[in-house]
Design goal:
Elements lengths: L6 E5 L4 H12 L4 E6 L2 H10 L4 E6 L5 H14 L5 E4 L13 H29 L2 E6 L12 H21 L4 E6 L7 H9 L2 H9 L5 H14 L3 E2 L4 H11 L1 H18 L1
Parallel strand pairs: 1-2, 1-4, 2-3, 4-5, 5-6, 6-7
Helix pairs in contact: 1-8, 3-4, 4-5, 6-7, 7-10, 9-10
Length: about 270
């Protein structure tokens, strides 16, 4: 996809990867961007900071179908049909078996079902035109795992699975799908985990280079241009995924050793 002249929607746009994508897409010459987030003041500030591209900021709960449908309608009204919908909102829990049922449900609603809600809202118009692109932020946790965070590991695997299903089902009807799967990214989410000494954050930081959100956004632009299903800002994730597939038992043993090593030095 050439982003020039395209209409884009980004959820979870107020900070981190979402905000970095908005700025990078602006540089790429998109025609208009609708930026959505629960943090209305932050996303409005981002919208005002972007020059040279028409933008609109909207408060949106991505788990609410009515609000997401309204989001797509607002994009159509402001800029025209949506060419690229970036389902970027996500949360972590930092918990395991002690995760409450409510926390499991919230992780599921935001990390997985929000992608379903978005697809339902935007796909009909894309299918009518025979063209459209869905970018799902899924995380390397969706291909590998998330140490110390059972809901995140499980829901991100499900998010990758849904992205695969969308591509298989609609790829021959003009719909492109990419799953963005970064590893460590210097966002408040990771920084908070490192400050708190969470095992998952420590292992993520130890597993490879921690990229900036801007580096991830650059990888997104390259991945969209190549129309790759898996966008891997950390190329080593492909190697880890291959090792996991070739010998799951060996991979699990290596993960246990990594957790022990990181925990002993924390």
């Amino acid at each position: 996809m050439d982003l020039g002249g395209k209409v884009v929607v980004i959820t979870g746009a107020a900070g981190g990867i979402g905000a970095a994508m908005a700025r990078r897409f602006s540089d790429a010459g998109v025609a208009g961007m609708l930026l959505a987030d629960l943090d209305a003041p932050a996303v409005e500030s981002l919208s005002r900071s972007i020059d040279g591209v028409r933008t609109r900021a909207i408060h949106c709960d991505v788990t609410d179908p009515a609000q997401v449908e309204a989001l797509v309608e607002a994009a159509h009204e402001s800029f025209g049909p949506v060419d690229l919908f970036c389902s970027n909102a996500g949360i972590t829990t930092g918990t395991g078996l002690d995760t409450t049922d409510d926390a499991w449900q919230r992780a599921w609603s935001i990390n997985v079902h929000a992608h379903v809600v978005a697809a339902r809202a935007v796909l009909p118009s894309m299918l009518d035109r025979g063209a459209g692109y869905l970018l799902q932020t899924c995380s390397a946790a969706g291909l590998l795992t998330a140490v110390g965070d059972a809901p995140y590991a499980v829901t991100k695997h499900a998010a990758v699975g849904f992205a695969e299903w969308l591509s298989m089902t609609y790829g021959d009807r003009g719909i492109k799908v990419s799953a963005l799967c970064p590893q460590g990214v210097a966002t408040p989410m990771l920084e908070h985990g490192l400050t708190q000494g969470h095992a998952g954050a420590l292992v993520t930081a130890a597993a490879g280079e921690v990229l900036t959100a801007e580096q991830v956004a650059e990888a997104v632009v390259a991945g969209l241009a190549a129309e790759r299903f898996l966008i891997l800002p950390h190329p080593e994730v492909a190697t880890y995924q291959q090792r996991k597939a070739e010998d799951p038992d060996r991979w699990l043993t290596s993960m246990r050793k990594l957790i022990t090593r990181v925990s002993s030095t924390a």
